[in-house]
């Protein structure tokens, strides 16, 4: 049995939705156990009616505090030692859980994970990595917000960690790695990306060079590397564009009787596209580079999306992700 610690109190929805997501992940994986961290009352209420075979693999771990979504990271570390977020991370540190999942405050989660678990020996900064829907299935991108700036060496480390996750968690053999830039020509970009480009070109990675933003979706690469400021802006732009396109489609297909008929004709195709691009199927971002596995779920994740984050954490733990990253960085002589 593999055990995952789950912070069910943090996030935008009620704890019931995250407990339901955890139960869904357990129902899909008979070899998975869950430590549900939080207040007893909402957890017990959400567990009512759960199948006995699933509930038998659930344990409640009490927590008396919650980290607010807008709480400064330093304050969270200093004042929220009894929070569901902190206790879930502590359970990984103690070895009671192989990984933890939280939908809470990203900054606080990263800061707490750094403080409690520490980074691997050859990692200067941990990074947030997630999958983005693309023409060939999905592209892995990091950093998505942990580090607003990054040195050339840190970008090289991000690339190494990203390639390991793409290979060991997602089964991509010899993943192609690209460095996000304002152009693909070698002369483009500021000094940091130029220096990182040189480091990556000399590394054993399958580095294809600079890529522009369209490569995230085109299938030209498997891993896109950038700093956390650029990565987070790109991610939020993607999310906003997806919402905008969905809203415009609904508006125009409902604008007239003729358009509604056209919408009915197009519905099968639209449903297939919606299923392929459904963000719930891509929920869960690994915080790579830590001495333990931490997965960040989207704060607004419903039970389907949250179950995906729990399953991702389980898969990362089973693949020995942390050890593989440490070995790869040591081999490269970091």
State the end-to-end distance: 34 Å
Output the number of helix runs. 13
Average pLDDT number: 91
Helix fraction, binned, reads 40-55%
CATH fold call of the largest domain: Isopropylmalate Dehydrogenase
What best-fitting shape do the alpha-carbon axes yield? globular
Uncertain segments are none
Report the radius of gyration as a whole number of Å. Answer: 20 Å
CATH superfamily of the largest domain: Isopropylmalate Dehydrogenase
Tell me the major beta sheet.
11 strands, mixed
- Assigned CATH class of the largest domain: Alpha Beta
Give structural notes.
This protein is α/β, with parallel strands linked by helices and 334 residues long. It folds into 2 domains: 1-120 and 289-320, Isopropylmalate Dehydrogenase (3-Layer(aba) Sandwich); 124-287, Isopropylmalate Dehydrogenase, CATH 3.40.718.10. It is 48% helix and 17% strand. It has 13 helices and 11 strands. The chain has an 11-stranded mixed β-sheet with strand order 3-2-1-4-11-10-5-6-9-7-8, sandwiched between helices. Helix 7 packs across helix 8 (191-201). The longest helix is centred in the last third of the chain and has 26 residues, at 228-253. It is globular. The protein starts with a strand and ends with a helix.
Task: Produce the secondary structure layout.
Layout: E1 2-7, H1 15-28, E2 32-38, H2 40-47, H3 52-55, E3 58-62, H4 73-79, H5 84-93, E4 99-102, H6 106-117, E5 127-134, E6 137-142, H7 152-168, E7 176-180, H8 191-201, E8 206-211, H9 215-218, E9 223-225, H10 228-253, H11 257-277, E10 285-288, E11 293-296, H12 303-318, H13 321-331
Parallel strand pairs: 1-2, 1-4, 2-3, 4-11, 6-9, 7-8, 7-9
Antiparallel strand pairs: 5-6, 5-10, 10-11
